[in-house]
Amino acid sequence: MDCNEARPLLDANADHELTPPQSLDVQRHIESCEACRRESEMVRAMKGAVRTAAYHRAPDELRARIMAALPPVDVAEPQWRAHASDGQTEPRARHRKGWLDWLRLPQGGGFGTLAGEGGVSGADNGAGSAAGWHAGTAWRGGLALALCALVAAGIAVTLHRAGEPAPFVDQLVASHVRAQLSGHDIDVVSSDQHTVKPWFNGKLDYAPPVEDLTASGFPLAGGRLDYVGHRRVAVLTYRHAKHVIDVYVFPEDDPAAGKPGPALVRDGYALARWRDDGMMWWAVTDAAPESLTALQAALSARLRGEAPGAPYPGS
């Protein structure tokens, strides 16, 4: 295993996500390569700092939003009134119709009736009904609580899906920052797309499109392999003024690719995502978000075979 094969796996190795044979190969390479050993130590130090960082409770506003989104429950607790009538105790329940009415147990035979047991009669009917009511109340309360928990969990999942894919975005930002800090942000250094594109052959299970956007103010600097979304990915590195723009390319049907959407800003880094040429594209930079919009337009034009527009200001 050489550096090009080991470096994309360092992050997964630190998370113990590799198979035992892969982990052994990576560890052997780390022990024999000073540069990869330093990068591995930096990855582990970063993960340790994240694990020891202070965590904050969810804000009260989030709890209020979840509670407000829960459907209303209009069920009054039944009250049993015992009164003597012909030597028997007649149970009575007062309740209002609600969406949880189906949780109510049969009133005749208590909890035992629901289980298919025979009912009781005579003097034992009052005691049996009371016991059945207590058991039924506990049963209904537990089931209602479980149902509310499922609804709350569903709302939380919906809110999360409606928002941004935070874990994946964090991986992209961490990958971009880690590459800049390591001083090894490019594996194949070339502004020639016909040199960069063939370099990925045999290293990935897909062929990423590669375009030089120098005419639009975004010269190609090279490319590298990285490991995000639990797989190897192609990263194209562009320059804009004094800024670096990393462009991550995935097959469109890859679960790790995410979904297209508006530009994001995370920890001071701008991100953009879009779909084009059968691929999903993610761009990360410390430059202004507008530069990613210009890069996306220039790249899409080149992929369609159109002539480049005017260079983006600041190039």
From TrEMBL:
Keywords: Membrane, Transmembrane. It comes from Paraburkholderia piptadeniae. InterPro entries: Anti_sigma_zinc_sf (IPR041916), Znf_put (IPR027383). This is Transmembrane anti-sigma factor. Residues 3-37 form the Putative zinc-finger domain.
